Amino acid sequence: xxxxxxxxxxxxxxxxxxxxxxxxxxxxxxxxxxxxxxxxxxxxxxxxxxxxxxxxxxxxxxxxxxxxxxxxxxxxxxxxxxxxxxxxxxxxxxxxxxxxxxxxxxxxxxxxxxxxxxxxxxxxxxxx
Length: 128
Fold this sequence. Notes:
By secondary structure, the chain is mainly α. The protein folds into two domains: about 10-40; about 45-125, Serine Threonine Protein Phosphatase 5, Tetratricopeptide repeat (Alpha Horseshoe). The chain is about 75% helix and about 0% strand. α3 runs parallel beside α5 (about 80-90), α4 (about 60-75) packs antiparallel against α5 (about 80-90) and α5 runs antiparallel to α6.
């Protein structure tokens, strides 16, 4: 419709409100999907995190750390994976990195008790 002076909403004036409702619904759906992603990490991240915890139980901390890093790669706001990463780093005596991972977890979920504990442990080891 170039050059005719018509706008897209002039073509269907009586359907304009439905177009606006559709745009609003699309926007709300996108916001909802983003909220769900923030609250619930993708399944692949959960699987990597769970595998990392199995390695923690076997005391294979380097392998656990790799799995937690993979979980974080797919879900950058997965505070539990950051906390578990901090625990693995503490076990590997990499306390400065553990402190950083715990602080990231606490930025995402400020009152997460396990992250607080991992941070306190890393700080205590750095002060010794």
